[in-house]
Amino acid sequence: MVKIRLNSSSIYVFKNPTLEKAIEIISEAVDKKEVLIIVGNCRVKYTGRASSKLELGERILIIKRDGAFLIHRPGGYQPVNWMSGKDTIYHLELIGRKEMLLSMNNAKKTSFENRLEDPPKKNVLQIQAIQRSPPELVRVFFDQIHLLSTLNLEDTGRFSLYASEEDMKKAILLKPDLIEKGFKVVSYEKRTDTGFVDVYGADEQGRFVIVEIKRKTAGRAAMLQLAKYRKSVEMEVNRDIRCVLAAPKIARGTQRLLATLNLEFKRLDPKRCAAILNDEQTQRARISDFI
Amino acid sequence: MVKIRLNSSSIYVFKNPTLEKAIEIISEAVDKKEVLIIVGNCRVKYTGRASSKLELGERILIIKRDGAFLIHRPGGYQPVNWMSGKDTIYHLELIGRKEMLLSMNNAKKTSFENRLEDPPKKNVLQIQAIQRSPPELVRVFFDQIHLLSTLNLEDTGRFSLYASEEDMKKAILLKPDLIEKGFKVVSYEKRTDTGFVDVYGADEQGRFVIVEIKRKTAGRAAMLQLAKYRKSVEMEVNRDIRCVLAAPKIARGTQRLLATLNLEFKRLDPKRCAAILNDEQTQRARISDFI
DNA sequence: GAGTGGATTTCGCAT
DNA sequence: ATGCGAAGTCCACTC
Q: Do B57 and A271 touch (CB under 8 A)?
């Protein structure tokens, strides 16, 4: 086992640590809320909202400083097993191989102990990630650890996501003209008895307008939903209302439905919304970009 | 820079490699479809279905052998940026710091070149992950790499997930009595003009039964959907049909709707389904567990 | 390629 | 806590 301390951040790398050494390092890292990367040969068992079993193989386990827990196989975007990290607590233990197999099969320990002749060799490292609510348990059984690294990462960088549906709404609030000249926002995310209206406003002539926003092609569902909103809002305010569907485009073959339901379509490009938010917000951000 | 070859699998670890060395190692690893772990100080820019920007900080980048690409911050369950790995290609480049900032701000290279006095120093490693469809691009700009590891992982272990809705369906196919005594499965996932019926069968008296399965509490939506299925199936077979909603429980306040729509509720515990699948399937699996 | 439905969905925000 | 809607949802599947 070789321990290397990297000079930059507090990054330690351990090559082929014994399981005894590994349990020590991992315990300390979890306590100190450091990020852990563990590469090794393991089995995984999960019980909770569903249950799963993953047989022996080499994987990457990441435990983050907030407790988030990810087991990644060598391929695929998603972790094969995980824990969100909210209220996740950890329990580490060295156990015997037979104990592990019994544990994986949920057999009772007593029946095992009855059959046991020699005390078990402690040759498997069990990592339990436990969550209270919803009750979930992931157990990883490492029989070999190839690589173990503890990381103290500094990451305060701001993350900004542009042109989500949320951002499109913000852009409309900033520039109501995106809907049409003279449009005024009255409120947004107005609750109706059937759901939400994205934006609620008035046009130049003072008529009520409800706006439904879609980031992507607006389809039949969005139109029917908007029509339903119209109904419930008209019941409330007791007058006619204009309905605008704001989206990059409408689905093929829905033109007629749009007309039938007396809805209006306003082309609204998510990227343009992103650009508007950029213009408004990034004057200061741009400076920090060049630091 | 220290290079360590671990004796077990083909695992290499590089401590504080220069960016020149790193680009070499990463290129080779991506070509050979090895798993890569890169820890370093970076910025990230994403454009595609949406767009995002992540400012400077220390993160973990994982590139898997199928091209899956994940950038993880020190906290949080989800990757902050990612690429699924389907048709993802990679482009690596050493660029100057100013070039990077201009690239991150989408400025035109020409305007940059006009302002440029000295040729830029190549002191940032850019990793581009590019996807064709939907068109997406993630760019990571490392100005320092703390830790770089290439992994050749062996992972053929089978993964089994129990008690998903799919498994509940399988359990019913194995033990139709779960629905009721004498129930017989005719087919499953039968297509109708409005959607799918989970299971389609006949009761003891030979009446048609359609079964809708929910892993979780069945609500209003499931009931309306099932009622819709009934209609379209009745149109087809031209006779009355029984509708059974199989779920662990129904939502509060939906009892009346259930009656109104003339649906029946059958309590079906996902865990019990999992146990049944276990009984049927794990006789052999248990043996392999003890290897 | 587009469309549909499920997911250990996750992640918000509302009540 | 619960419930609803959105997500760069992902994913498998059908058309």
A: no
From the Cβ of B50, is strand D under 7 Å away?
Answer: yes
Contact A197, A210 (CB under 8 A): yes
Cα distances (Å, whole numbers) of residue A55 to A42, A104, A136, A159, B273: 8, 10, 19, 37, 21
Closest alpha carbon to A246 in A267, A262, A228: A267
Chain A residues within an 8 Å CB radius of B144: 8
Write out residues in chain A with pLDDT < 50, as ranges: 191-195, 282-291
* Among B8-12, B153-157, B287-291, the least confident range: B287-291
Instruction: Give one DSSP letter per residue of B62-131, joined into a string.
Output: EE-TT--EEEE-SS-SS-SEEE--TTEEEEEEEEEHHHHHHHHTT--HHHHHHH--SPPPEEEEEEEEEE
| Cβ contact A25:A17 at 8 Å | yes
The pLDDT of residue B211 is 87
Asked if residue A267 keeps its beta carbon closer than 7 A to nucleic acid strand C, the reply is: no
Q: Which residues of B touch A65 (CB under 8 A)?
A: 74-75
Sign of the dihedral defined by the CA atoms of residues B160, B162, B165, B168, in that order = positive
Count of CA atoms in the C-beta half-sphere (13 A) of A179: 31
Which pLDDT score is estimated for B192? Answer: 45
Distance of alpha carbon B212 from alpha carbon B199, whole angstroms:
7
- Asked if the C-beta of B158 comes within 8 angstroms of chain A's C-beta atoms, the answer is yes
Contact A74, B35 (CB under 8 A): yes
Three-state SS annotation for B21-80: HHHHHHHHHHHCCCEEEEEEEEEEEEECCCEEEEEEEEEEEEECCCCCEEEECCCCCCCC
Residue nearest to nucleotide C10 (CA to C1'): B78
The answer to whether B289 contacts A104, with C-beta atoms less than 8 Å apart, is yes
Q: Cβ neighbours of residue A205 under 8 Å, at least 6 residues apart?
A: none
> Which one, of A38, A14, A12, lies nearest residue A142 by Cα?
A38
Say how far apart CA A174 and CA A177 lie, in whole Å. 9
Measured between CA atoms, the residue of chain A closest to residue B44 is A159
For chain B, say whether A160 makes contact (Cβ under 8 Å): yes
What is this structure's pTM?
A: 0.76
Give all strands (DSSP E) within A73-222, no chain letters.
Answer: 81-83, 89-95, 124-131, 136-152, 159-162, 184-191, 196-202, 208-213
Locate tokens 């146990």: which residue?
A: B275
> Which amino acid, residue A89?
I
